[in-house]
Every structure is written in C-alpha cells, then in structure tokens.
Write a structure and sequence with these properties.
Number of domains: 2
Order of helices and strands: HHHHHHHEEEHHHHH
CATH topology of the largest domain: hpI Integrase, Chain A
Largest sheet: 3 strands, antiparallel
Strand content: under 5%
Radius of gyration: 23 Å
CATH class of the largest domain: Mainly Alpha
Structural class: mainly alpha
CATH architecture of the largest domain: Orthogonal Bundle
Oligomer: single chain
Number of helices: 12
Number of strands: 3
C-alpha cells in the first residue's frame, strides 16, 4: 500500500466570523493537521459562540469570565445536551488559548471556568444475530447493493468510523493480505485487519459493482482512487454512507437504533465478548487513551449479567422460595 498522508485543504473564509477565528481554524489545519470534519465542527461551535457575543455587542477579544459563565448557562437553558455544551466549551477554551499564544489577548477568560459534567453513557451495540440480519438484508447484484454490503462488512470488520471508511482509497486496501490503512483523527494512520467476509464483499464490489459506477470523466481529483463511489461516480460522502446504512437498518426493524457508530461499538463489544485483548481493540479503533476503550468492558460485563439472568434456571428466585 502506497498512500500519501492526506490533510485538509485550505479553510474557506467566512466573512461573518472574526478574523481571529479564521486564523485559529487555519492554524488547526496547518499546524495540527485536523480533518475537514473536525474543522467544520469547530466552526459551528465558534459560530454559535460569536453570534451570542455579537448579540450583546461583545467580542472574543474582550469577553470576560462572567460573560462566559452567562454563555454556558444560556446553552444549558436551551435544552442542549450536556455533551454538546461540553464539546462547544472545549472548542472555546482551545480558541482562547490560541488567542493568548498568538498575542491577541494577554489573559485567558476560560482559565477558571467550570467544566460541564457529561453523564457517563454506555455504547449501544447490536447483538451478533442483529448484525448478521443487517448484512443479510443487502441482497442482489445491483452495484449499489454490492457497495452497501461491502461498506457494512468493512465497518463491522474493522470498527472504522464512517468518515474513515469513506476516505479509504484503492492504495489503502490490500485484500490479498487482508489489511486496510485508515486515517483517523488528526490524520493519524493505522493498519487494521480485514476479515474474510469483508474481503469477499469488498472484492465483489471492486470487481463487479464499482466499474458500473465509474464515470467517463472524474469530477474531482481523488475520486478515481476512492474505494466507495456514489451513484454519480464521486467519492461516497459521509452523509450518503450514513443514509445508506440507516436505509438498510429500516428494512430489518432496527430503525433509530442503527448508525455507523453503532457498528463500531458492535465490533469492539463482540471482539471483547470473544476474548480479544483490550490493548488490541484500542489500537484497532484508533483510541488515543485506553480509558476510552475500557467502556466496552463495561458493556460486555452488562451483557454477561443480562444473559446469565435470562438463561440460568436459578438466577432469579422462584415464587415461594
């Protein structure tokens, strides 16, 4: 595999945002190698923050700790999820640290700001039979069916994020040795094994389905090298992949339970259920910290307790005992 490390392109300028925000976003791309999806998320969070300041005739260069506390209370009062408020606050903290480092401000108004507590939640994994039903629901020889089955198999086989799967190029995929190169957060790359079922599905898609969707003329540079194509012959987008997966989920009654990330959770949970080492799962998923991966051990333990209670004849007290 001989794929060059990919970075985000130039950050488009939004003239409604303060120039300091644009400088910060450009710095994230040039110095930190942040992905386009990460930049878009930071932009949304900082747009909301700057809009709120603007309505009060404030600005990031002059905001004080009391105003920031008022902003956080405003976000909480708007019924925003704690995780959303925490994520936005993290973006604001990092932005103000940048302003200090670059000399735009002499102080950091977020330094003593309390964080937002996010309730710990467990990932929602599918059962192994539900995953099998999901993949079996994609049948037929149509190119889109071959693509969707290959995409589902790859996501479940590798625990890849949907953006990572859509970003896979032909040079990243080695079906003979069963490996794929994924580019995670911060453009960090990792090699992940691809199992036999996924290799078979990917091989059929590449040999039989993909040629039917190839255009006579490629619209964008890099589309010709994409593993997954949309029906117009361009690289499959994250949004289109998400819609395709949910569409298949609706067919088998999974409805609102299914998303690409649920397949990632299911991959990790099922590997641990079958005895995989936690460090191996961490490396496979591309987690920077082992603590992020450890949440799946809690999922496995809860599943064990549930199965024990439902299957063991003396797990529950009988009437009269």
């Amino acid at each position: 595999m001989n794929a060059a490390k990919r970075r985000s392109g130039p950050v488009p300028i939004d003239e409604t945002l303060p120039i300091e925000v644009e400088e910060y976003l450009s710095w994230l791309v040039a110095e930190r190698g942040r992905s386009a999806n990460t930049i878009a998320a930071y932009r949304r969070d900082l747009e909301g923050y700057c809009r709120w300041l603007g309505e009060r005739r404030g600005s990031p260069s002059k905001v004080d700790p009391r105003e920031l506390e008022a902003f956080v209370e405003h976000r909480r009062a708007s019924d925003a999820a704690p995780s959303s408020v925490a994520r936005q606050l993290a973006a604001i903290r990092n932005f103000h640290r940048f302003l200090v480092a670059e000399g735009h401000r002499s102080d950091d108004p977020t330094a003593d700001l309390d964080g937002v507590r996010v309730p710990a939640g467990l990932p929602k994994a599918l059962s192994e039979s539900e995953v099998q039903s999901l993949i079996d629901a994609v049948v037929g020889e149509h190119p889109v069916a071959l693509r969707d089955r290959a995409l589902l198999e790859l996501l479940y086989a590798t625990g890849a994020r949907v953006s990572e799967a859509c970003g896979v190029s032909m040079g990243d995929l080695d079906l003979e040795d069963g490996l794929v190169r994924l580019y995670g957060k911060g453009s960090k790359e990792r090699l992940v094994p691809v199992g036999s079922c996924a290799r078979t599905a990917l091989g059929r898609w590449i040999d039989e389905g993909r040629p039917a969707l190839e255009p006579t003329r490629w619209r964008r540079r890099g589309d010709s090298d994409a593993v997954f194509l949309d029906q117009r012959g361009g690289r499959l987008s994250r949004q289109a992949a998400w819609a395709a997966i949910v569409r298949v989920g609706d067919r088998v009654g999974l409805g609102g339970r299914l998303s690409p990330h649920v397949l990632r959770h299911s991959c990790a949970t099922h590997m641990l259920d079958h005895g995989a080492d936690l460090r191996i799962v961490q490396e496979m998923l591309g987690h920077a910290s082992i603590s992020t991966t450890q949440v799946y051990t809690r999922v496995s333990q809860e599943r064990l307790v549930e199965q024990y209670r439902s299957a063991h004849p003396r797990a529950r007290a009988r009437r009269g005992e």
